[in-house]
Amino acid sequence: MTRNGISRVKTGCITCKIRRVKCDEKRPCCSRCLSTGRKCDGYVSPPSGSHSWAQLLRSAPPQKTIALTRLNRDGSAAVDRAALFYHRVAAPALAGCLSKTFWTTAVAQVALQEPVAGHAVLALSSIFESFTEGVPSTTTTTTTTTTFAAWHYGEALRLLRTTRDRALVLFVCVLFIAIELLRKNAAAVVTHCRHGINILNEIRAESGFLRRHVVPVMRQLSIVPFFYGADPKTFPLIDRPVFLSSSSSSSSSPTRLFASVAEAYESQMALHTRLVRFLQIGEEARLAKGHVGPEPDRKWTRRFLMIDMDRWHESFRALKAGGCRHTGRDRTVLNLLEIRHIMGRVQISLFDSASERDYDAYVDDYRAVIDLTTEAAAAEEEEEEEEAEYDNAVRDPAGSPGPKRTSRVLTNDSVLEADLSTLLYTVVAKCRFLRLRLAALKLMEALARPRENVWSRRITIVTARRLIEMEHDISLPDDLDEEDWGEKEDEEEADSVLPPEERRVVNVKFPYGNAERRGPLRNLCFFLRDPEDGHMIMRSEWLSIEEPSERSRMT
């Protein structure tokens, strides 16, 4: 007679399995081993891809660090440090207005279960640390940090080749984009973005995890390739409707109300990606006289885009004026969204303009942007003072600080998002009223943090200063506060004397390759319009990106 056996339980710690006893499966060490004085050898990690997205997000987020020791090749010290650095420093800094839970919670949880994500997180943590320390991405010096990051990045790429889960591939692709942004590797950023968008468009039955976490972050990053020279005619777009599509834009359609600041942000990112793509396609026709644009229906495209932008702004104003009380951080984000809308509206209105003088009619918009930025900067300064008071209040008698508060939105809180300093560049470039330009330039310099934001670059400030000098035929001091240009000249005279058309810069080509770099010097191309025939004239200059303090030390 066959004996009725009892099926063995395949879960439990390694020690209890060897002893063939029931395990209570308490983590990180089971109570049964500890109560009998034995050492619990932990649990066997399940194979990659065996968890669903719901299972990955079911557990609580890690409170101290990410247990990724098993991924190290030389021991646990380096991995433990990188995991702790990601949890305490990198994740809060990468988390922006829209994607806080993605970087601080979802990434940590998936990294615990999937080795390919774990290796990518460790590489991201190490590269982020180098970025904040100002280590150049093109350095040839081999350090412990660069070796560690390179090895884990390579392991993640190797494992990704055998990963069949398309959702997991997309998830890791987002991490790769962040890595290459921090490394300032333009070609790799464009490649990873292209692959990520194509994969996202192939996934039709998306899970709640993808919809809530991955898609918003991917939409946020999808705008990046257009700033790195990607061809807008061939680069893919995310096939996911967010706000009002062009086909449904009619005067009778009701205005949609945003439920939160994050929803308004995500909706604007979708519109902003369309706007940037459209402006680049339209700019080809504007720069080359007689060139036929690649989109014969661009006037209709502009009309639909402007309708959607106006609809968005109606919903935005309703959100801003609603009964909900916004936090200080939310108010700062609202200012950022309004600035982006104002400048986007100006750019799309004048995308086919034949004269740079047309920008002079939008002086009120430039003033509004400067006022909104000043308000946001004042809120940041007030928050810095409150944070200092908080740190002093929670400091224990031994002198060690208490728990850190949430990072600010203008600095560490949005490493991958365009900060206010970057958005002000358009005001400096297109506003020809000297006092307003100088006010915008001062704000740019005050808010710029190149080690805390991938878009905040010294070359942008240097270019903005040079534009003012070229168009107004003046020489700016290193410290703009040394000479107050607004008080030095009569206000009406300063606003009435505008640069002539032949001195106005239409566009600037920023350096990308090593051939356009010589130490601290960068080769920039300024495009001006010939007043006689309307053709473009290119003016090339080498500008230094060194800080004034660095130049003074050299001399």
Automatic annotation (TrEMBL):
InterPro entries: Transcr_Regulatory_Proteins (IPR052360), Zn2-C6_fun-type_DNA-bd_sf (IPR036864), Zn2Cys6_DnaBD (IPR001138)
Keyword DNA-binding: yes
Protein name (Swiss-Prot/TrEMBL): C6 zinc finger domain protein
Signal peptide: none
Transmembrane intervals: none
Alphabetized SMART domains for the sequence: GAL4
S-adenosyl-L-methionine among keywords: no
Originating organism: Colletotrichum higginsianum (strain IMI 349063) (Crucifer anthracnose fungus)
Keywords: DNA-binding, Metal-binding, Nucleus, Transcription, Transcription regulation, Zinc
Listed PANTHER family: ASPERCRYPTIN BIOSYNTHESIS CLUSTER-SPECIFIC TRANSCRIPTION REGULATOR ATNN-RELATED
Taxonomy, superkingdom: Eukaryota
Chain intervals for the UniProt region annotation (Disordered): 377-408, 478-497
Domain Zn(2)-C6 fungal-type intervals: 12-40
Acidic residues bias locations: 378-390, 478-495
GO molecular function term, any single one: DNA binding
